[in-house]
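Database export, one record per block. Field names are fixed; values are copied verbatim from the stored entry.
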Amino acid sequence: MTNSWQISSRLRSAVLRYFGAEIGTNVIFRPRTRVSFPWNLKIGDNCWIGEGAWFHNQNMVTIGENSVISQDVFITTGSHAHRHDMALITSPVTIEDGVWVTSRCILLGGAKLGRSAIITPNTVVPAMTTVPQNAVYGNANAATVLGVRFANEK
């Protein structure tokens, strides 16, 4: 069950600003938005942040003006070194003006989305990827069989 109360965007913006976020004017936050480190968040004017968006921002996340982050988008700036020590590695995520990140996308550390780009639903933008301006970027490949679940059964 989810909370049906609709806490105002102004209140969410005020609380995020109090904890160090830079939030522009006319920013709409839908319910269930999560921000791990408000001081690492900068959002330009006239943006819309969809329900269930999650900013796991151990490094800076910058969102340009007039951008949309749709429902259930996960943005993470951190990962771990693939070594025995699992050291934390962080890289900022930059989303330029006019970008639309559609529902259920994942943006990994170091991703840079160019002005007016669209990221199609369920797309993973890999770490350190630059999406050109005006691009429509997504997972173009159809699903495929990756292997066998039970090798001994006929």
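Remark 1: The mean pLDDT is 90.
Remark 2: Residues 9-135 form a domain with the UDP N-Acetylglucosamine Acyltransferase; domain 1 fold (CATH 2.160.10.10).
End of record.
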